[in-house]
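Hello forum,

I keep getting stuck at the same step: I have a sequence, I want structure tokens, and every attempt I make locally crashes halfway through. Rather than fight my setup again tonight, could one of you with a working pipeline run this one for me? It's a single chain of 234 residues.
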Amino acid sequence: MWELLTATQNYAFAIALGLMLVIALLEGTALMLGAGISEFLEAMLPDLDADIDLDVDLDTDVDLDVDAPDPSGSVFTELLGWLHIGRLPLLIVLVIFLTTFGLVGLIMQSMVRGTVGFYLPGWIAVVPAMILSLPLVRLFGGGLAAIMPSDETEAVSEASFIGRIAVITLGAASIGSPAEAKLTDQYGHTHYVMVEPDTESARFEQGTAVLLTEQQGAVFRGIVSSNAALTADA
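Reply #2:
Ran it on my machine without issues. Output:
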């Protein structure tokens, strides 16, 4: 096992598992201090880089003049929803991915060596490991979302989120680069959604209260909330 973990061809998988263990350790320490890991990591994480052009225009009661979406980003937008990003906090999805990617890669390399007598080069091995890990992320993420407390996974229509306040919790949002935000629905339950501004010049930093104005695919668009009462309710 030690040889498998320390082989240069398997560094990517060993590092993925190591990062997962570090996150788990930090989370445990943070919880003992009465906080969550996101509060410690958000300031250190870079902006979420997801080149997303949105493709679904849902009817809402908010009348906004926005540019027509470019359908070229539809595949990536659908991938966000397919991986349960929005149903689960982004950090949880990351932990599931690191775990499955690392384990799949090591198991695959072990089988290859047992068959042909050597490991695949690392840059080749990461490709099938990545492809095989994504369905597992969806599988385990869906299972986790189903058993999480009801305030995280209450089955309400996402269309009802329009007009509500969401607070940016992870990253910074700009056009084409959505960030994770947390909102409370009409039943008092918490949901995590991906949010970006509705104008090119706007940017939502961590802690910004955003009024959701429309949904396009797996991503919501919004404007900075100027209503102190609504912001307080969020």
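Residues 39-73, 150-154 have pLDDT under 50 and may be disordered. If your local run keeps crashing, start a new thread with the error log.
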